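Backbone geometry:
***
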Amino acid sequence: MTIPTTVRYGELIPCKTAFIDAHTPGSDQKENFTIIGGGVSESADQHVHINEPHGFNIGAAGQPPRCRNSLHSHRTAEVFFVLSGRWRFFWGRWGDAGEVLLEQGDIINIPTGIFRGFENVGTDYGMIMAILGGDDAGGGVIWAPQVIEDARDHGLVLGENGKLYDTKKGQTLPEGVKPMPVLTDDELGAFEELTPMQVVGWGVRRYNDMAALAKDRACKVIGETGIIRDKPGFEVDLLTRSSAREEMHQHDRPSVLMPVRGHWRVNWPGGSEVIAPGDTMSVPADLPHNALPSMTGEAALYHVVATDDPAGPSMR
């Protein structure tokens, strides 16, 4: 019998050269983590903890105060929840169309087709967990033109093959590989400038509100019937102490458990394991299991499972 695989917070392997802005001042202190699936890293240095396809990717970003992730877009869904710290998410061609502040446990489902970035505005190192739609996460990152230009000024060039080359280390583009082209004005016109109400009203939910809804059963956060109505190729539920059940259940595909508050004991026939905030557990398909708080106090975890919906544009 296959048993769950857990990636512990303390065993996460960071990559500090994952993206094109790795040398750009203000963004050069980021740590990127690829937990499940290949993610969208542009660096050969990126470590992947679990390669098994789940229908989505799980990653994380760790950043010190005032460190930001530059403006970019994806072709599939990008969902974040705050594990620790205080974070500012911003969007638009120049990052000034709107912004929202998120705290521990809060979640944001960012619409596809817009440029977005995020910054740790707390006072200590913070981490956000990410869910990206599809096994190939949409084929990579689409950068705002100024990000590519700024990176070039600091020694990093992105090839059209999606790989980074560091001119400070003497690296050059291989023969036959051209630089990633900057989006044209016509192409930029396809990226929407959504208002704060459109992004926040549709795609942001606060932890305390979700926890209040998860008293009798898990709160369906993202899904066709979720409090965020979307079909991005996966569903997200929030489970709390009061909605946890001893009865075991199973899924016909792998699922993922990510605690955000408290310690949880995951049980399956013949075994069990305790997971804590920052840990990521992959539960195999068809394995009966449950998850129960293992200590007193507040307890909540996010549960993610793929659906048969295409991992395409988010609904709005």
